[in-house]
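Why should sequence recovery work at all? Because a backbone constrains its sequence more than one might expect. Tight turns favour small or flexible residues, buried strands favour hydrophobic ones, and helices have their own preferences. The token representation captures these environments compactly. In the example below, the structure is given first.
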């Protein structure tokens, strides 16, 4: 005989009542019915329920279709509410974002205004720069003209001194006779000069207060002036010209040179300095023009302005 277990006490069961609600086999006493009573049910066994199922159906009566429908709606509403709950946080975030966007928009508006002001200032600066560049161009043109005028003026001034000789190193005394000194120098260098050959002779102020004023001799003829300087240079090669050689006290050296303008004197000084740095052997003045030569075989360079110093390479 087949055996099973009771749905209530879980003991072995060979015969019992069958609950059509929970679909379990139960001992008669576990099902709450007598064996005789259960057998008298006949066809009603098809709808019989155990006491537990009956109690459950009594405490929770079946819902009417309307109530059941409302219950389903409530469940759906709760489910929808659960789904919509995160939207509350999203709404707060959107509100915060709107506030931030409004602040950002305001900041951008202020930045755009500042950029417009900045662009205006840039345009103003560019306009000023263009004006300055035009002024610089004009200044450059004016500077070129000024340089050219200074060169022309210096050339004219040097031309006016073409007949002049500058003598340095002669001691100065009261009641001195400059013609007599000049005559002694001419005799010593082998090129005597007379008063008829001289336009004037005088001492001129010197920028160097520690040195004696130089003597300027203006010859009537440029050729006589050039010959006088050439004779002095030739004589100076063997024996330097000094005050003692012309009967003056001391043994101070005497220098006989072209009477250069202040511009050409400064240029001569710079030329000597640059020539020493570039190992040039010769720097001299002839016909009031500055010359330089690196060696005996190299070409002669004539310097007229400071720009020409770049030629000393």
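From this structural description, the recovered sequence reads:
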């Amino acid at each position: 005989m087949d055996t099973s277990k009771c749905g209530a006490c879980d003991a072995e069961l060979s015969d019992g009542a069958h609950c059509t609600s929970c679909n379990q086999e139960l001992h008669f006493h576990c099902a709450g019915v007598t064996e005789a009573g259960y057998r008298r049910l006949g066809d009603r066994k098809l709808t019989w329920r155990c006491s537990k199922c009956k109690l459950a159906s009594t405490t929770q009566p079946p819902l009417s279709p309307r109530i059941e429908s409302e219950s389903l709606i409530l469940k759906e509403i709760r489910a929808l509410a659960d789904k919509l709950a995160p939207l509350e946080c999203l709404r707060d975030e959107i509100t915060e974002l709107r506030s931030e966007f409004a602040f950002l928009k305001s900041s951008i508006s202020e930045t755009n205004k500042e950029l417009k002001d900045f662009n205006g200032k840039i345009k103003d600066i560019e306009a000023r720069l263009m004006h300055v560049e035009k002024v610089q161009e004009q200044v450059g043109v004016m500077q070129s003209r000024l340089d050219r005028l200074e060169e022309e003026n210096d050339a004219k001034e040097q031309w006016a001194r073409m007949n002049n000789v500058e003598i340095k190193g002669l001691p100065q005394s009261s009641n001195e006779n400059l013609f007599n000194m000049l005559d002694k120098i001419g005799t010593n260098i082998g090129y005597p000069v007379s008063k008829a050959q001289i336009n004037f002779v005088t001492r001129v102020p010197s920028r160097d207060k520690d040195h004696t004023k130089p003597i300027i001799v203006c010859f009537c003829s440029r050729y006589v002036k050039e010959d006088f300087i050439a004779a002095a240079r030739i004589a100076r090669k063997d024996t330097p010209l000094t005050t003692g050689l012309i009967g003056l006290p001391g043994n101070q050296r005497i220098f006989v040179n072209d009477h250069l303008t202040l511009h050409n004197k400064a240029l001569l000084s710079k030329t000597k300095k640059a020539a020493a740095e570039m190992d040039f052997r010769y720097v001299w003045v002839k016909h009031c023009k500055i010359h330089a030569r690196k060696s005996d075989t190299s070409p002669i360079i004539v310097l007229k302005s400071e720009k020409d110093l770049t030629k000393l390479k």
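A few observations help interpret the result. The chain is about 50% helix and 15% strand.
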